[in-house]
Structure formats: structure tokens, C-alpha cells
């Protein structure tokens, strides 16, 4: 079926040791001349040379300067085959490509008069003939020639070497990348850009010139991203000892971009949404997102570029590790507790759903048809959780030694997950062979804890069992090696000193390796209250039969802030899903705890805001065997109404009390205040008088955070001023595509059946630009991922709306279409007629999609 298997890996028969490329750039027709220095693998002496290439018009082909006769090679849809080469040689090819016709945004493409590339994972083969796999790592020399008027700025990987005039209004620039670099990290940018720049001293004493580029009118909005680059560079030196390795580091913003950003060597290309920001157009969440993505891409320079991947099955080796690194970057610079809560919220809502649905796959998948389909929450977020567990098991100091060894030993090489674990095993002396199962086994582990207290002897026993449910293709699972932190509290919430034979003497952590463990504690005066998985140190679903009052106590006394938040999430989940025998007491405990939080001025407001947010629809859907959409949405709405009614005065008081702090700029205290204030406003707008408050905030707002927060309240709670506010907002930002995406996303995620009509209306306007991935996601991603009420409309209209647009989108940008299809990943667990409706919609898509991306997704969804 066209699948590629990890077990079939073979080293490349031919390597490219150096690539010298020349581009005659033009949006309509670009010519690429490639001189590739080729070396055969001595172990595979007679293997033919096979080069990847797609949609290339071949103009010329030479070996060591001599034209190749046409019977000496063969071209098919996927590649170029040459037999009978005897040994190292230089292949020169000249091809023509058509950037302007490239809607897939893979390879070289045009966007708003400029030219950009995107090569990960397999886009480089759309630029020239090449051995396009990550374990082929030449050094590079890249010369760009173009018209100066349209393309005054010419950027490529590495350091600038030379630039000059060519006459006739044309000019050139040559770049050199001395580091062995696979083709997926190749990049070229040409266009009329401006930049903000700065110089930093590297830890090794050399200087690096940093620049962030964008269309001229957007340059003033690049300052924050530049500062984020500076912070990232410094942080990686300090925390990981990783020093930058070129004289320049360039970041360029592109409005048409499929991914979030791309870590090309020395020339990161970003989706504009992760670069451009000022107070008038960016929310606090946007700023945080920019800093974390800038960090992420920068950190790839070591975890991904210097040490790259042997093959695409190892994708999480760079992505999981780099997400862990960017999470730590954000945690070190901002609130560690709030960052952890946000990350776990995403993991539970989206990765757990992926791991429990039709698209579940291990962090290292054993096979794929289209690698683009594996840039998933599992590869990224679960991959990061695995690295975090390793960090917990080894401790910061030994983890750092292991990382240093990993980087030193694999520098300039294409590595595997085994190389990563071997470095950590060697540096720490620990056996990580069972831990390696985390990479091979899909599904979220369930850890169930039962306990018993023997009052006579004061003996307390914990019985801990783990099991991982079956996933597609993996019916049976083996026990995993995982760290589990825990603590015991007495009835007053005082922490009890215990010694569970913990290996590191800290007495608050055990390592699970078997399916069952028993822990005994002696000499306890009374039955303790246990707390588990502090900091969410293992990515599992942990079940323990808490009473509402125990959760209320934990929410106050747990030392670990993540677990204080989690106690309230458990309490809320139990109330919403009617898990508690005394429902009235549970509801009262939750309301009391939330009331205290609203009033508590000693608490970080951002933390309080996180606590006031109930588990979202996806998280609840993950917690039930069968998804009753109406029941989940109804229960959630009822509880939110109840919280608003019960605490209306408190919310109102706090909302006003936070006004002064919220009026500040980008300092943490102001961001934190705005966060809680907007959560208060959202609850208040559920009640009639709140609408006036939201309207007032909208009218007076001085930041995008407050303006968009108020607009969301007005739109999502059907306030009277909703349409006028939307029109005012849309008019004010009509020329800004990123802000336009924001209001479109609000409309498409409005929890009202009419959202489907609004989306249909959008399709009929100029605002619907199916070639722009951000816009497609603002419309259809918001509908399918952020609007369960409309997407799951009982008659199946939401499913039909998404499915209808997929054939056209698939013809434009297969990656975007395939990602939207994943919105159906949990369909088999839908209750009632909805499951049948999705099934019919998926069946109706048979024969209407053509990309390998979408065909693989559809097949997995229907398997
Ligand atoms: N650009 C994507 C990321 O950084 C893929 N490498 O995650
Ligand atoms: Zn990445």
C-alpha cells in the first residue's frame, strides 16, 4: 500500500558531500543549477544512483562536466535513476520550476510578491534532483540571482560570502553553510523586506548578527520577536551549554505558511503569526506564543540541525526534545506552574484524544505512507513528556550530563532514539531499556490507585496498577517504566514524612516498572490523604477515588501548584460527569473553592484564571467511554451558569479591582491580571448585566488582549452589541490578515448552531482564501476543533460542511486538508446517530480526495 517501514532502513547507497547550487530566481520560472559531489557507499558498490525529484523540468544533466546521453538515465514520477557510475563524481543538473503555480507551499513558492521555501519533510525534491533524506548531509554553497527591484533581499542558509551587481537590473548573493546539513533544512528567501537587527556576543567570544525580516509595513512589529531570539540564544548557552555556530541568524515572516515555523539552518522561516506583534494587534497569548516558537526553532539548531535524524521515524527525537526545551525556556522565564498547566491542558484535550482515537500511533511510528501526517500532538507533546520523565528519573544534573554526551557524540551526525537513550543510560548508569517502550507503544497509560488503612497497626497500603488500552494495530501492551511523585497529608493538610524506600532518598517518588506495585507505610496515626503525580511527572490518566472534600483540601494544601489546579479539575470533572454519590456536596465544595480563588489576592491571578476554567469539551470527551455531545455541552453550560450566578458579586468586585494592574504593558503582572479579568468577564457575560461590562471593555480597550477578550464575550454569549462590535473590529483591521483571522475564528467557534450559517456566508466572500493556511484554519479549524456545538450539530450539518470543502483544499494544500480530516479522529466513540453521520460523511469522501496525505488519513480513520 505504499507504506514505508522503519525496519527497512538502509544507509544511503550514495551520499552527497557538498552541494553547490545556483538559482536564477523568478516567480514564473526559476532555473536551478545543482553541482552535487557524490560518493558511493563502499558497502553497496554496485547500487544505482537514485535521486528524488517531483515536478521538475529537466534542462541539462552532466557527470563531471560531460553531458549524460539520454540512454544513461531514466526519469519517472518520483525520481531520476542513473546506472553504471563508477565511483565518486560530480553531477550537474539544471531544472526549471514554477514557484507561482506552487499552491502546496512545499519547495519554492511565491507569496505576496516574494519567494520562500519550505523543505521539511520532503519539499527539497521539488526544487532540484537530490538524495532527499535526512541522513544525507552535505555542506552547501548557494548563489541567488534575481532582479534587484523586485527581490532586493536575497537570503539563504549559512553565512553571507559575497554579493554584487550583475547589470541589467539584476544582482546576486552567495551564501555558505559549512555545517553538514540535510536538504530538509535548506532555505532561500527573496523579496522586498525590511528588518530589525542587533548584535550579540556569543559565549565563545564571537559575535552573531541577528535580524528579523518582514514586509516593510510590518517591520515595526518585529521587535518583540528579535528580543525573543536574544533571550533564546542566551538561555540555550546558560541552561544547555549550547552555543550558536554561524555569524548570522535570520528570521523571516511569511503570510502564507503551512506550519508554525521552520528551523532552516541559519535562516528560520516563520508563519507571520509567530513573528508580528504590537499591543494593538497581538494578544498576550500571541506574545507568549511568539517567544516560545522563536525559542523552539532556535533550539533546533542543536536538537535537530547539528544533531539531525537518521530517518523520519525518528521525528520525535528532534521535535519531542525541542518541545521539552522550549517548555523549559518558557518555564524559566515566566511562571513554571502556569506553563505546566497550559501544557497539560493541551496534552489532555488533544494528545490524549489522538492516543485514544482512530489515528493513535506510537511516538516512533513503525510505518507511514506520508510523513507529513505525523507532525502530531503525539510526536511533539507526548514526545516532550517522555523527555520530561527522563529528566525526572535522572534529575537535572545527570540529565544535563546525558544531553552533553548526546550532543558531543552525535554532532554532525544523523541520530536515532537509541543514540539518545544510550547517551543518557551511559551518563547516568541507568538501565533505560524498559523506558524505551514509551517510544514504541501507543495509547495513554491508566494508573489506578487503591488504598487501605489498618488503624490497629497504623499501616497504610497503596496498591498501584498500570495498564495501557489497546490501540490500532497494538492489542497487547507491556508495562511501562515511569516516575510517579506522591505525597501524603494529614486531615489538616499537613504533609506527612514518609519513606517508601525511594531510591534517591527524597521519599516522595517511586518508579513504576511492573503492572502492579504495593507500597506500605507504617506508624501513621490516621488515614492519610494521598496526592499523586505532582507536576504531572508522568503523562498518564490517574484514577483514585477521592471524595469532594478531599479534593477541596488538596486544592488548598498540596504543595505542588499543578496538583492544586488538578484537584479542582478533578472536582469539576466529577461534578460534570456526576461521579460523586453526594452530588450536592460536590457542587458546593467546588463552588466554595472557586469563590475563595476569586477573592484570593495573594494568588497569581493567572493561576486563579486557570483554576476557574473548567475542563473543556475535548478533555471531558476523553474521560467518558461514549461521547454524548449534548450531555457534555449541557452539563458544562449549566455549571458555568451556576458559577456565574453564585459568584456574581465576587466576580464583579475582582474584575474591577484588577483594572489598574491590567492597564499595564507586557510585564508579567499586567498579563496575569488581564488573564483573570477576562475569565471573570466571560463568566459575568453569561448574565445580562455582564454584557454592558463587556461592551464597555470593548469600547475602552487599549490592548488587543482586552479588545479581543471583550469581543469574544459579546459574540459567544450573544450580547446585543455583538454585530456592531464585530463590524467595528473587522473594519478597523480589514487590511491585517492576522487580526482578521482572529475575528473569523471567533465567529466560527461561536457556540451557536448559526455558526454553520456564518461559515457558509464567509465562504461566499473575499475573506475565504483557500490558498492561505492561516485563513483555512481560522475558519474550518476553529469550527471543527473549537466549536463542538456547531460541528456536532445533530443533523450532521457540521460534518458535511467540513467534508464539502476538503476535495478543493486537498487539491491546493494536501497537508492542510489532511490535518482538517483529523478533526474526525474520535468519531468511533460518538454516541447516538452522530457516529453514523460521520461514517456516512467519511464514506462520501471516498474517491474525492487524491493526495497521499488525505488518502492515508481517510484510510486510518475508516480502518
Ligand atoms: N517547523 C516545525 C517545527 O519546528 C517542523 N520542524 O516543529
Ligand atoms: Zn520543531
Automatic annotation (TrEMBL):
Residues 102-185 form the Aminopeptidase N-like N-terminal domain. The lineage of its organism: Bacteria, Pseudomonadati, Pseudomonadota, Gammaproteobacteria, Lysobacterales. It is an enzyme of class 3 (hydrolase). Residues 443-545 form the Peptidase M1 alanyl aminopeptidase Ig-like fold domain. It holds the Pfam family DUF3458_C. One of its GO terms (molecular function) is alanyl aminopeptidase activity. Residues 224-437 form the Peptidase M1 membrane alanine aminopeptidase domain. The keyword Hydrolase applies. PANTHER family: PUROMYCIN-SENSITIVE AMINOPEPTIDASE (PTHR46322). Its cofactor is Zn(2+). This is Aminopeptidase N. Residues 549-860 form the Peptidase M1 alanyl aminopeptidase C-terminal domain.
Amino acid at each position: 500500500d505504499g507504506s514505508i517501514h522503519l525496519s527497512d532502513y538502509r544507509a544511503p547507497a550514495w551520499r552527497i558531500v557538498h552541494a553547490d547550487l545556483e538559482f536564477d530566481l523568478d516567480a514564473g520560472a526559476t532555473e536551478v543549477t545543482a553541482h552535487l559531489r557524490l560518493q558511493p557507499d563502499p558497502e553497496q558498490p554496485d547500487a544505482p544512483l537514485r535521486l528524488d525529484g517531483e515536478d521538475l523540468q529537466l534542462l541539462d544533466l552532466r557527470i563531471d562536466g560531460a553531458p549524460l546521453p539520454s540512454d544513461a538515465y531514466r526519469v519517472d514520477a518520483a525520481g531520476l535513476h542513473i546506472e553504471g557510475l563508477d565511483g565518486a563524481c560530480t553531477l550537474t543538473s539544471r531544472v526549471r520550476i514554477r514557484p507561482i503555480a506552487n499552491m502546496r507551499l512545499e519547495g519554492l513558492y511565491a507569496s505576496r510578491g516574494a519567494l520562500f521555501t519550505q523543505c521539511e519533510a520532503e519539499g527539497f525534491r521539488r526544487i532540484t534532483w537530490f538524495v532527499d533524506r535526512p541522513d544525507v548531509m552535505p555542506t552547501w554553497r548557494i548563489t541567488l540571482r534575481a532582479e534587484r527591484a523586485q527581490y532586493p533581499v536575497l537570503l539563504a542558509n549559512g553565512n553571507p560570502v559575497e554579493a554584487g551587481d550583475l547589470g541589467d537590473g539584476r544582482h546576486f548573493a552567495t551564501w555558505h553553510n559549512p555545517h553538514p546539513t540535510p536538504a530538509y533544512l535548506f532555505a532561500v528567501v527573496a523579496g522586498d523586506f525590511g528588518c530589525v537587527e542587533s548584535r550579540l556576543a556569543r559565549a565563545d567570544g564571537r559575535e552573531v548578527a541577528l535580524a528579523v525580516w518582514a514586509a516593510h509595513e510590518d517591520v515595526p512589529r518585529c521587535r518583540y520577536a528579535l528580543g525573543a531570539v536574544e533571550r533564546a540564544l542566551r538561555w540555550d548557552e546558560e541552561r544547555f551549554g549550547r552555543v550558536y555556530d554561524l555569524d548570522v541568524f535570520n528570521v523571516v515572516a511569511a503570510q502564507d505558511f503551512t506550519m508554525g515555523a521552520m528551523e532552516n539552518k541559519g535562516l528560520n522561516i516563520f508563519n507571520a503569526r509567530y513573528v508580528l506583534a504590537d499591543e494593538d494587534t497581538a494578544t498576550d497569548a500571541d506574545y507568549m506564543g511568539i517567544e516560545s516558537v522563536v525559542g523552539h526553532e532556535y533550539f533546533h539548531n542543536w536538537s535537530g540541525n547539528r544533531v539531525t535524524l537518521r530517518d523520519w521515524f525518528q521525528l520525535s527525537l528532534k521535535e519531542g526534545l525541542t518541545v521539552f526545551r522550549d517548555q523549559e525556556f518558557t518555564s524559566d522565564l515566566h511562571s513554571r506552574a502556569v506553563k505546566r498547566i497550559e501544557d497539560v491542558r493541551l496534552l489532555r484535550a488533544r494528545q490524549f484524544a489522538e492516543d485514544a482515537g482512530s489515528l493513535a500511533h506510537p511516538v516512533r511510528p513503525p510505518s507511514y505512507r506520508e510523513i507529513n501526517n505525523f507532525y502530531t500532538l503525539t510526536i511533539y507533546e507526548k514526545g516532550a513528556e517522555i523527555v520530561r520523565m527522563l529528566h525526572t528519573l535522572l534529575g537535572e544534573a545527570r540529565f544535563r550530563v546525558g544531553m552533553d554526551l548526546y550532543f558531543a557524540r552525535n554532532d554532525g551526525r544523523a541520530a536515532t532514539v537509541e543514540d539518545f537513550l544510550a547517551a543518557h543510560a551511559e551518563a547516568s548508569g541507568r538501565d533505560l531499556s524498559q523506558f524505551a517502550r514509551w517510544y514504541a507503544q501507543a495509547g495513554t497509560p491508566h494508573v489506578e490507585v487503591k488504598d487501605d488503612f489498618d488503624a490497629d497497626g497504623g499501616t497504610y497500603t497503596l496498591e498501584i496498577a498500570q495498564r495501557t488500552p489497546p490501540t490500532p494495530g497494538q492489542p497487547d501492551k507491556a508495562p511501562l517504566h515511569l516516575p510517579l511523585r506522591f505525597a501524603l497529608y494529614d486531615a489538616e493538610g499537613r504533609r506527612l514524612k514518609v519513606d517508601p524506600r525511594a531510591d534517591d532518598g527524597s521519599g516522595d517518588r517511586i518508579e513504576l516498572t511492573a503492572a502492579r506495585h504495593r507500597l506500605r507505610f507504617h506508624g501513621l496515626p490516621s488515614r492519610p490523604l494521598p496526592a499523586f503525580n505532582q507536576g504531572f511527572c508522568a503523562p498518564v490518566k490517574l484514577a483514585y477515588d477521592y471524595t469532594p472534600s478531599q479534593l477541596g483540601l488538596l486544592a488548598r494544601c498540596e504543595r505542588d501548584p499543578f496538583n492544586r489546579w488538578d484537584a479542582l479539575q478533578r472536582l469539576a470533572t466529577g461534578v460534570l460527569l456526576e461521579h460523586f454519590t453526594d452530588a450536592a456536596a460536590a457542587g458546593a465544595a467546588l463552588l466554595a473553592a472557586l469563590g475563595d480563588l476569586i477573592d484570593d489576592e495573594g494568588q497569581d491571578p493567572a493561576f486563579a484564571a486557570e483554576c476557574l476554567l473548567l475542563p473543556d469539551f475535548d478533555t471531558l470527551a476523553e474521560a467518558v467511554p461514549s461521547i454524548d455531545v449534548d450531555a457534555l455541552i449541557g452539563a458544562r453550560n449549566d455549571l458555568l451558569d451556576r458559577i456565574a450566578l453564585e459568584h456574581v458579586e465576587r466576580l464583579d468586585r475582582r474584575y474591577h479591582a484588577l483594572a489598574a494592574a491590567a492597564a499595564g504593558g507586557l510585564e508579567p503582572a499586567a498579563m496575569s491580571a488581564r488573564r483573570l479579568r477576562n475569565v471573570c468577564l466571560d463568566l459575568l457575560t453569561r448574565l445580562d448585566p455582564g454584557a454592558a461590562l463587556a461592551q464597555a471593555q470593548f469600547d475602552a480597550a487599549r490592548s488587543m488582549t482586552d479588545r479581543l477578550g471583550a469581543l469574544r464575550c459579546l459574540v459567544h454569549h450573544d450580547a446585543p452589541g455583538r454585530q456592531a462590535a464585530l463590524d467595528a473590529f473587522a473594519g478597523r483591521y480589514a487590511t491585517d490578515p492576522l487580526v482578521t483571522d482572529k475575528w473569523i475564528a471567533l465567529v466560527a467557534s461561536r457556540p451557536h448552531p448559526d455558526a454553520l450559517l456564518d461559515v457558509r456566508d464567509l465562504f461566499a466572500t473575499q475573506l475565504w482564501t483557500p490558498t492561505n493556511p492561516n485563513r483555512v484554519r481560522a475558519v474550518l479549524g476553529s469550527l471543527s476543533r473549537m466549536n463542538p456545538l456547531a460541528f456536532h450539530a445533530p443533523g450532521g450539518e457540521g460534518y458535511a460542511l467540513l467534508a464539502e470543502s476538503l476535495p478543493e483544499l486537498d487539491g491546493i494544500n494536501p497537508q492542510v486538508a489532511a490535518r482538517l480530516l483529523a478533526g474526525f479522529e474520535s468519531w468511533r466513540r460518538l454516541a447516538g446517530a452522530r457516529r453514523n453521520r460521520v461514517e456516512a460523511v467519511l464514506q462520501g469522501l471516498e474517491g474525492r480526495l487524491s493526495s497521499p496525505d488525505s488518502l492515508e488519513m481517510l484510510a486510518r480513520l475508516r480502518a
